[in-house]
Write a structure and sequence with these properties.
The complex is a heterodimer of chains A (618) and B (814). Chain A is built from 20 helices and 20 strands. Chain A is α/β, with parallel strands linked by helices and 618 residues long. The longest helix of chain A has 28 residues, at 308-335. The chains are: A alpha/beta (618), B alpha/beta (814). Chain B: Belongs to the MCM family.
Chain lengths: 618, 814
């Protein structure tokens, strides 16, 4: 049982020991980081660290090492703190040097006039759980964390939220029996009765979930209805390497000292600002960062770090790639009512990724517009299926009311001095599902127009202009946008596919549920791995194929210069790239190019058909 | 003198415990006296309030406390040479070595410092000064002496001192000023007052002169502030985002004994008042009560400043800093102002709470402001040479100059512009020249007003020819760019609107995109979709470079020296080569003639082009970042290059170039005169000059030479060839753009009118005819096809001649 690790339970002890040894040689700071990094490198060791995402705050031991999978939502101003300070012992009058790093509060009797005080700088990031994280992703990481008993008394027995069965639940049961024996930290869970009841009660009394506390404290989650802890992360090193909206896995020392809330008297800040920057530690814990790992993806089924075992994992999966693709395609075809072409495009869309930018032009984005979607909750079901496949997603129902009232673009609130989040503040590769079938006729007000413009900008340039009231600031993003609409969408898109249903099930709801139920969890998991993995593959075009593509383009133009433009070439190159990657091929072959051309032609003939159909309408 | 020696603990103890007479109060001249001396409140106050003034001339003028320099700290002087410090030794050395005394914790000797500063004031001359603050001063006389004279005349007792002047005069003094502002600035105050009252003994000032240094070169960027800057003087730039209400801050508390009415004053020390427990007069304990209206207060305001967007790295949020303004600096700035702040950076530990054993280990930081300088205020009047004070390091300038010396710099830069957009070389070159702009000329003395230096460009062409992408690129490149879409913007959004502040009920002028992009580029996409009323606003901006507003009682003229880069789509979905530009995009010719260059972005539909395009696009998708970077200039270099040229290069026409320009213009006029039409207007000459100047700027040349004129001519010709070719004749015809109609079309119109007249005359005396009948007759008679539009135009022309009138469906002869 790896529960007796001092570096997890008492990391501050480790830090202090190193500080004491150092004789104020500044190198000790680097050594501390080195040490924790080394500890975490060990196999499996990072899974021993309890995660704020999975374990309710009141079960975590204060001042222990915890991890947090999160998105940097806001960056506060840097602050100066006492890096080293001196205390005077009131009884012995002896001066003692102390280290203030990784702590919020000093020891008693600080000598404020001491010469040995070293002022240092750190910055606070406001971090929230990754917005729109799919329930299955949470579930899996939660269960895998539960397998290793964390150094807390907490026994995961969360209610199942998704309709997925998982017999892992059985594994967790025995641990509950062991609970009384494990060491209980400061906060005693109330009794040991019915665990389910306890789970639903505990958060409300401790107000860790925003569901009931949002009324008096806005935790500033980008998406409405999100749950989970927000965290103030104190960052000490490499401040420039972090950017807003980065997804990180942060390892740090948890600080929930209740003193934090009391201290904050008489300063010039407005009450709003104080509330935003110094929320009660029981609600928004402080985390002193020791190590942070940028996350390429948050799919718990994939090894997260680019290590050797990842490359091994990739090469083993590549063998299966083609077969998984075929299965997934079949599945999507069913979902899209038998439309194979639309399924193909949906698949390509799901693995698309902005892989680079040329000056202002994002390359690799592939916004798909599925037009001709059947009404009546079809899109909703479709979203649920997409959500089952990708680790991060959000469905924005574009009804007139939401467009007029919802805040999509983050806005700086100067009174509280924080960035008020909006629904477009999303982590990279989040699937944004825009449901235009919900839009009805009516008047868009000015905020509605702004929202539509923001969505248009997001699709065309993959950027969001955050509103800083006196000016705007551009933040690049990488969001997969899928638009479902009846006719052609009013938003721009890279590619429009009119849906041509081959089957018309009498009961749509039932039809889709059956399709979904027919898939085994293991199968779905394969799809999930496939989609996340295909995106990360490298891709290149050989000189020979380049030449062929060029020739092809010239020929196409020769036939009909009006119908093939530079934009079409852009799109076909993206399609070719995605098509190759979806088959696990890392270079474009001539075949791949022909296939891309072929499906694009099919699609175009379909849109033209649609156009002429519409033209005939009175 | 080294500082570490001074701050050894033993020495510190000595100063703290030393006898009172050792601590010379250096700041006796800055005693607090917020209250006017002549006010009745001052009656009965001890005369000691005006004691301690160095000279009799100063005596009459009350000193004013400087809360910006922090609470009046007892600043003892220490003798460096008396070691180990013993009480006796110090007393002796105080008299003997008066010159070597320094203020504790610093290496500042009051006497030397004062002397140095007086010398600076008396001698400093800056013949090359071009600051607007020095306007009207004789640059060859000592600058600050003239300013003192100004103070004696105007009576505003504030002396602003440019730190860079101090630095160039005496680097050591500058270093002391930056490192120990709290000690040095009061010394400066003393020095100035001595000097001033010596010179102008009779002048009456409200209070003693205060020195306000500005432009400390130490720090420019809020982000680079770090713990080392604490208690030093810094200058940062930023934007005001919030200001607080006025806060009265107590400077001196007035206590009165309830028993014997004995009164005493207690200075506020670091925000605390040490309330006297015992009355010194009657020895009663706890009898003293604070009398509020006899205590001295000073004004204080909290201002929040945010770093300007240009300063920050991509992907991070801007930092903010708290700034405290005191006394007359209160309410000097408004939210939204861009300012440079000079002040002292402070870090205050969270206050110790006696009830709590441990404290938060965080410091509160703020800046006590000494001097504000608005950077955008000047933009409202006159030129702003240094508002964008972008500093270039010497290496950077070297790189830029090296680049400029390359013969192909023009081509290099233009190809570095939006490399992802394929070809359109001339358009890119045009935009490049627009980015540089012409030379500013001021003819206001001769009544002409400002001469437009900005180049306006219109791109029209088929949808999907990456016009928007080009606009986006330019918008991202320039520091003060605005991007709007014609579809979504209204006239007020472009210009300015008046808004009522919900809190203060004050009318506030909110500026729109055009004003915001003053000195920058305003990119307007979908220009053709703009409503007429919105477009009409542009008329003034694009020629006069100003915006006049008369709304809700606010009448003003704002500067909008912005270049306009617009993109328009043809009215029909595709560009119709059979029609003129005007017909294709349906924009009024009055507006079109204000564009220097109008380019068509068309699909050339030619195989070689297709091949190159395909190659370019495919390369985009497989080349790695490094390859691309090797090929093209870095965007940052391009940005700096443009900023440098815009700031420092002001080319003027040389003789040859003027001749070449004249020739070019005459040539252009000649082309048309053969066919009886005007082929060039003075506007074309003006834009030719602008383009030539911009091209000289690209070369970093101070002179416009013939090659610049050649390129300007070529570019203008290219643009005209594209946009002003008469589709009927194939000739370039400038009147398409200036009058909206080609000369041939006009001739044709006249012919039709004449034919119609002839036809009516041939019909004999019929007073009224049917409209439709007449149209049919004319169609039957004429060989060429006559459209209804042409017919109506002909009728209108004849009506203008008073030959006939049209009423409804009948035509009447007169």
């Amino acid at each position: 049982m790896p529960s007796s690790h001092d570096w997890i339970n008492k990391p501050l002890g480790v830090v202090e020991a190193m500080f004491a040894q150092s004789n104020s040689n500044p190198e000790w700071e680097a050594k501390v980081l080195e040490y924790f990094k080394g500890q975490l490198k060990e196999k499996e060791s990072h899974s021993w660290v309890p995660s704020l995402n999975d374990v309710p705050l009141h079960y975590l031991k204060p001042n222990s090492l915890v991890k947090f999978r999160c998105l940097v939502q806001d960056m506060f101003d840097p602050e100066f703190y006492m890096g080293v300070y001196e205390t005077v012992d009131p009884s012995t009058k002896a001066n003692v040097l102390r280290c203030g790093k990784y702590k919020d509060v000093t020891e008693c009797g600080v000598d404020l006039n001491s010469r040995n005080t070293v002022t240092a700088e750190r910055q606070t990031f406001y971090c929230v759980p990754i917005p729109g994280e799919s329930p299955w992703a949470k579930e899996i990481s939660f269960l895998s964390a539960a397998r290793v008993v964390p150094s807390t008394s907490y026994v995961p027995s969360r209610q199942k939220r998704s309709y997925e069965e998982d017999d892992d639940d059985m594994d967790t049961q025995p641990q509950k029996q062991r609970e009384p024996h494990t060491e209980t930290p400061q906060i005693q869970p109330h009794g040991n009765g019915d665990s389910k009841r306890q789970e639903t009660e505990a958060p409300s009394s401790q107000t860790t979930t925003p569901s009931d506390c949002s009324s008096h404290l806005d935790l500033n989650f980008p998406l409405p209805g999100e749950r989970g802890p927000a965290c103030l992360v104190k960052v000490y090193e490499g401040l420039d390497s972090f950017k807003l909206n980065d997804t990180l896995e942060i390892y740090g020392i948890l600080s929930v000292n209740p003193v934090l809330t009391v201290l904050g008297e008489e300063n010039m800040e407005t009450p709003e600002e104080q509330r935003a920057h110094d929320p009660p530690a029981s609600l928004v814990p402080r985390l002193h960062m020791l190590y942070a790992r940028p996350l390429q993806h948050n799919n718990p089924l994939l090894p997260s770090a680019p290590t050797e075992d990842q490359s091994a994992f990739v090469s083993s999966f590549l063998v299966e790639m083609a077969s998984v693709r075929a299965e997934l395609l079949a599945y999507l075809t069913h979902v899209l009512l038998g439309d194979g072409l639309a399924a193909e495009y949906l698949l390509l869309h799901l693995i698309s990724d902005v892989y680079t930018r040329r000056d202002v032009l994002p390359l690799g984005k592939f916004t798909l517009n599925l037009s001709g979607c059947p009404l009546n909750s079809y899109t909703e079901r479709l979203y649920q299926i997409v959500q089952q496949l990708v680790p991060c997603s959000y469905r924005l129902s574009m009804s007139l009311h939401t467009m007029n009232s919802m805040r999509l673009v983050p806005k700086k609130d100067y009174v509280a001095n924080r960035l008020v989040s909006g629904a477009l503040q999303l982590a990279r590769n989040t699937s944004l599902f825009l449901d235009e079938t919900q839009l009805e006729q009516g008047q868009l007000d000015s905020s509605g127009v702004r929202n539509i413009t923001a969505l248009g900008n997001l699709i065309s340039w993959q950027k969001v202009d955050y509103d800083f009231s006196y000016h705007q600031m551009e933040f690049p993003c990488n969001i997969n946008v899928l638009v479902t609409s009846e006719g052609r969408s009013l938003l721009p898109s890279d590619c429009q596919v009119p849906l041509q249903p081959q089957v018309t099930p009498p009961n749509m709801e039932e039809y889709l549920t059956t399709i979904h139920m027919a898939q085994f969890t293991s199968q779905i998991n394969k799809f999930r791995v496939y989609l996340s993995l295909a995106r990360t593959l490298d891709y290149s075009i050989s000189d020979e194929v380049t030449k062929a593509v060029e020739d092809d383009f010239v020929d196409m133009r020769k036939d009909d210069p009006q119908s093939v433009t530079a934009e079409d070439l852009h799109r076909m190159l993206v399609v070719a790239r995605l098509l190759s990657l979806s088959l696990g091929q890392t270079t474009l072959s001539r075949d791949g190019w022909m296939r891309a051309k072929h499906i694009d032609m099919l699609r175009r003939s379909r849109t033209e058909q649609q156009k002429s159909l519409n033209g005939n309408e009175p | 003198m080294d500082r570490s020696k001074i701050s050894t603990p033993t020495l510190r103890c000595f100063v703290e415990t030393g006898p009172d007479h050792l601590c010379i109060n250096v700041f006796s001249s800055v005693l607090p006296s917020e209250v006017d001396m002549s006010s009745p409140l001052m009656y009965g106050t001890p005369s000691s309030r005006v004691e301690g003034t160095p000279r009799s001339g100063v005596g009459g003028t009350p000193a004013r406390q400087r809360p910006d320099l922090g609470s009046i700290r007892k600043a003892p002087q220490v003798d460096l040479h008396s070691e180990p410090p013993s009480a006796d030794g110090a007393v002796a050395s105080e008299q003997a070595l008066g010159q070597k005394l320094v203020i504790w914790g610093t290496d500042v000797n009051v006497g030397t410092c004062k002397e140095k500063f007086q010398r600076f004031l008396q001698r400093f001359i800056d013949p090359t000064s071009n600051e607007d603050e020095n306007a009207g001063l004789d640059l060859n006389e000592p600058l600050y002496m003239q300013k003192l004279e100004e103070i004696s005349v105007v009576g505003e007792p504030v002396l602003n001192v440019n730190c860079s002047h101090v630095q160039s005069f005496d680097a050591d003094l500058y270093r002391q000023l930056i490192s120990y502002p709290q000690e040095v600035i009061p010394t400066f105050d003393m020095a100035v007052n001595e000097l001033f009252f010596e010179r102008f003994p009779d002048s009456i000032l409200e209070h003693q002169i205060q020195v306000r240094p500005y432009n400390a070169l130490k720090t420019r960027n809020m982000r680079s502030l770090n713990p080392e800057d604490i208690d030093q003087m810094i200058t940062i730039s930023g934007m005001v985002i919030r200001t607080s209400q006025l806060i009265p801050e107590m400077q001196e508390a007035f206590f009165q004994c309830q028993v014997c009415a004995f009164s005493t004053r207690v200075e506020v020390d670091r925000g605390r008042i040490a309330e006297p427990a015992v009355c010194r007069n009657c020895n009663t304990t706890h009898s003293l009560a604070l009398i509020h209206n006899r205590s001295a207060f000073s004004d204080k305001q909290m201002i929040k400043v945010q770093e300007s967007p240009d300063d920050m790295p991509a992907g991070q949020t801007p930092h903010t800093t708290i700034v405290y303004a005191h006394n007359d600096l209160v309410d000097k700035v408004q939210p939204g102002d861009r300012i440079n702040i000079t002040g002292i950076y402070r870090a205050v530990p969270m206050r110790e709470n006696p009830r709590q054993s441990n404290v938060k280990s965080v410091y509160k930081t703020h800046i006590d402001v000494i001097h504000f300088r608005k950077t955008d205020e000047k933009r409202l009047h006159g030129l702003d040479e240094d508002s964008d004070q972008k500093l270039f390091t010497e290496e950077r300038v070297q790189i830029l100059k090296e680049l400029a010396s390359k013969p192909d710099v023009y081509d290099r830069l233009s190809s570095a512009l939006a490399p992802s957009i394929y070809e359109h070389e001339d358009i890119k070159k045009g935009i490049l020249l627009q980015l540089f702009g012409g030379t500013r000329k001021d003819f206001s003395q001769t009544g002409r007003g400002n001469f437009r230096a900005e180049v306006n460009i219109l791109l029209c062409g088929d949808p999907g020819t990456s016009k928007s992408q080009l606009l986006q690129y330019v918008f991202n490149l320039v520091p003060r760019g605005q991007y709007t879409s014609g579809k979504g913007s209204s006239a007020v959004g472009l210009t300015a609107y008046v808004m009522k502040d919900p809190e203060t009920k004050q009318l506030v002028l909110q500026t729109g995109a055009l004003v915001l992009s003053d000195n920058g580029i305003c990119c307007i996409d979908e220009f053709d979709k703009m409503s007429d009323s919105t477009r009409s606003v542009l008329h003034e901006v694009m020629e006069q470079q100003t915006l006049s507003i008369a709304k809700a009682g606010i009448i003003c003229q704002l500067n909008a020296r912005t270049s306009v880069l617009a993109a328009a789509n043809p009215v029909e979905s595709q560009w119709n080569p059979k029609k003129t530009t005007i017909e294709n995009i349906q924009l009024p010719h009055t507006l079109l003639s204000r564009f220097d260059l109008i380019f068509l972005m068309l699909d050339p539909q030619d195989e070689a082009y297709d091949r190159r395009l395909a190659h370019h696009l495919v390369a985009l998708y497989y080349q790695s970042e490094e390859q691309i970077e090797e090929e093209f200039l870095d965007m940052a270099v391009l940005k700096d290059y443009i900023a440098y040229a815009r700031t420092y290069i002001n080319p003027r026409l040389n003789e040859e170039a003027s001749q070449a320009l004249i020739e070019a213009y005459v040539d252009m006029r000649k082309i048309g005169s053969g066919r009886g039409m005007v082929s060039a207007y003075p506007r074309q000459l003006e834009s030719l000059i602008r383009l030539a100047e911009a091209h000289a700027k690209v070369r970093f040349s101070d002179k416009v030479e013939t090659i610049d004129v050649e390129e300007a001519k070529r570019l203008q010709r290219e643009a005209l060839k594209q946009s002003a070719t008469d589709p009927r004749t194939g000739f370039v015809d400038i009147s398409i753009l200036t009058t909206g109609m080609s000369a041939t079309a006009r001739k044709r119109k006249e012919e039709v009118a004449q034919a119609l007249k002839k036809m009516i005359q041939s019909k004999g005396k019929t007073p009224a005819m049917k409209y439709q009948q007449l149209f049919d007759d004319l169609r039957g008679q004429s060989e060429a096809a006559i459209t209804k539009d042409m017919f109506e135009e002909a009728l209108r022309a004849l009506a203008d001649e008073d030959y006939l009138t049209v009423t409804g469906k009948t035509v009447r002869l007169l």
